[in-house]
Amino acid sequence: KQPSSQKLDRIAGDLLDLTKLERHDYAVLFRHKMGLNRYGPALSGPISSGPADVAAAGSDSKPAEKTAFDIRLEKYDAAVKIKIIKEVRSFTDLGLKEAKELVEKVPAVLKKGLTKEEAAAIVEKLKELGASVVLE
């Protein structure tokens, strides 16, 4: 077994080798594994331990309103690909290469965890450029 300092150095090195998109995916996975809400602080209250808890939680009269939205690029015209890549770079912290790869692998989620207002503004810009975008 590795001493803890060597193990931590190896893990830190592996994390630094990830691309920005991979780091984002890792952060989401890490928060999920730690029992944290997808975009916020830890969940409060008892942890669900079985079907009875799920049934009790599902008996609320009104479902919770969605507060975090994802932007998914479905398709775009090849003639506006460069403009789409530039727009993606404007609202993400991706470099040119990462943004290009993301746009080329449509359908793809461009940005996660946005408020409805932020997401609507980005969706509108992308639609003006000629992209087919979905707000999830």
Automatic annotation (TrEMBL):
Residues 69-135 form the Large ribosomal subunit protein bL12 C-terminal domain. Keywords: Ribonucleoprotein, Ribosomal protein. One of its GO terms (biological process) is translation. The keyword Lipid biosynthesis does not apply. InterPro entries: Ribosomal_bL12, Ribosomal_bL12_C, Ribosomal_bL12_C/ClpS-like. GO terms for cellular component: ribonucleoprotein complex; ribosome. GO terms for molecular function: mRNA binding; structural constituent of ribosome. Belongs to the bacterial ribosomal protein bL12 family. HAMAP family: Ribosomal_bL12 (MF_00368). This is Large ribosomal subunit protein bL12 C-terminal domain-containing protein. It comes from Linum tenue.
